[in-house]
Amino acid sequence: MLSYVLRRIGVSILILIAASLLMYVLVAWSRDPLQDLYASSSPNKEQLILQRIQWLHLDQPIILRWLNWLGGAARCVVPFAGCDLGVTIQNQSVQVLLARAVGSTLQLVTAATVLAIVLGITVGIVSALRQYSAVDYTFTFASFFLYSLPSFLMGVLLKVFVAIGFNDWLRDPVFSWAVIIVVSLVAGLFWQAVIGGNRQRRLTVFAASVIVTGLMMYLMSVTSWFLNPSLGPILSPLLIIAFGAGMVLLIAGTRARFAWRTAGAVAIVLVVAYFALQPFLPAFNGWGLFLLFVLALGVGLLAGWLLGEHDKGQAMRIGALTGLLGMGVIILDQFMRNWNAYLTNPRVNGRPIATVGSQTPNLQGDFWIQGIDTFTHLLLPTISLMLISFAGYTRYARGGMLEVLNQDYIRTARAKGLPERTVVVRHAFRNSLIPITTIVAADVGGLIGGAIITERIFAFSGMGALFNTGLQAGDPNPVMAYFIVIAIFAITFNFIADLAYSALDPRVRAK
User: Fold this and answer.
1) Which of 210, 284, 390, 421 could form a disulfide with 184 if both were Cys (CB 3.0 to 4.6 A apart)?
2) What span, in angstroms and rounded, lies between the C-alpha atoms of 257 and 379?
3) Residue 309 and residue 257: Cα distance in Å, rounded?
């Protein structure tokens, strides 16, 4: 394994060097960085030209300039060696600009990637298990439709129908009876098709979904819930318990007593923590939330280890997921409690869903207000990137699951009388992920690259702006900074995909 890793690192370095030379030469030839100064009528024009030539070393051959850049970039991987990615045509440090841009773009892309993978795989597996049903056809149509939409059109549609429409609706957030009836019927049809079963079971699920959805929408209207939302001391504990029960049913099944004890113990601890933390949560910051999630993870792992009996590994997974999801409910409730303060802030003016920028200018508030502001600005560009990737993951997950379900070992598992949940979760799911690992590795680099258009549409100051500015000015240094980040991400995730192959399929070994 060590020799394989070293070989991959060596090959990756050679690829980066060759690709950086090609990119640098292409950008340097694409446009003259002195063009704007040649057309200037400034009295000190000659002085400005000489100054820029000195900043960018334009008096040197392109190959020598690239070697100088490569030497500065190489020092970035050596601690305390003095990282130097050059300067822009305005004599700004590219290293400083890149640090700001990478943070914004990764914040956007990470959320979109995680949501696309989780939702895409989930929907794809459900579609495969309900092959040729109404659910399968609906998901297939939706995925192909989303996949065909260009990112710029997706951004415009989200601006018009989500941001502007929702902000206008918040002036009087009341659902009409027609909307309640239609949405309730659609929810009932959806859930009965997803859950499936005989006619009686489908009718029961349909009726329950219609009643619950309609009642929730009615209560949200009469209580103006969207203006002052909260999960509260009743719904929050119920959600924590529901997440624990869901993890048990999904991973272990109804008969696993050790799993129920593990999830129950973790849920009880988190319910107690919900009430105990209420006086202290308003003073928390990002590091405090990180510590809470670490503690919740530790509680879940410890409960699984102590109560796991013969299958401690499975119990620890259930405990960990229950702890993380339960703590997520507690944090979400606190954010929701601060929604009204954010909504009524003079800088927001009752229109919370932002269409441009990464933050509200001059917004004053604590960690929770700033967190909500970040969420509202990330919402639309994240959805735009997520929906496009989600469509691809859905199709690959469906195809992979269908292929695995037709294998001989799946038929053998069913013939042995194993429950369908065990067949799908333990035997089919893991193997269906093998082709998706390649797609994820390739999609990460593509998603960051595709964020250029999305950032431009939503005026999001990230790596896309850095790339566009450098390319339009014929300045190689910002473009090379963008390139090196994209290349490193692409190579790294392809390497991780190779390792994931060997973890998912024991027949594959990295040598």
Assistant:
1) 210
2) 40
3) 10
**Residues 6+ away with beta carbon under 8 Å from 401:** 124, 125, 128, 129, 428, 429, 432
For residue 93, the cross-strand partners are 87
DSSP 303-362: HHHHH-TT-HHHHHHHHHHHHHHHHHHHHHHHHHHTHHHHHTSTTTTT--S-SSSSS-TT
- Which residue blocks in 338-460 are alpha helix, DSSP H? 339-343, 367-405, 408-415, 420-422, 429-432, 434-457
Is the CB of residue 123 less than 8 Å from the CB of residue 396?
no
Mean pLDDT split into 10-residue runs, the chain, 511 residues:
75 85 86 77 80 83 88 77 78 84 81 86 87 84 83 84 88 91 92 82 92 94 90 92 91 86 95 94 91 95 90 90 95 94 90 86 89 90 84 86 88 85 81 78 67 80 81 84 82 76 64 55
Q: What is the pLDDT of residue 479?
A: 87
pLDDT score at 335: 95
Count the neighbouring beta carbons within 10 Å of the beta carbon of residue 495: 17
Q: What is the pLDDT of residue 452?
A: 77
pLDDT of residue 244: 93
What residue ranges define each of the domains in the chain, with the CATH number in brackets?
Answer: 1-169+383-511 (1.10.3720.10), 174-223 (no CATH), 232-350 (no CATH)
Q: Minimal CA–CA distance to 317: which of 245, 253, 251? A: 251
> How many Cβ atoms are within 10 Å of 30's Cβ, its own excluded?
12
pTM of the complete model: 0.82
Contact between 288 and 226 under an 8 Å Cβ cutoff? The reply is: no
Closest residue by Cα to residue 267 from 314, 311, 325, 312: 325
Among candidate residues 159, 205, 215, the one with its CA nearest the CA of residue 183: 215
> What is the rounded distance in angstroms from the CA atom of residue 368 to the CA atom of residue 20?
42
Query: Exposed, middle or buried by CB within 10 Å (0-12, 13-18, 19+), for 90?
Result: exposed
- Over its C-alpha atoms, the chain yields an Rg (Å, rounded) of 27
Q: Which two tokens stand for residue 148?
A: 């065909």
Residues listed for the chain: 511
Q: Give the single-character DSSP code of 276.
A: H
| Tokens found for residue 101 | 């841009």
pLDDT at position 1, please? 64
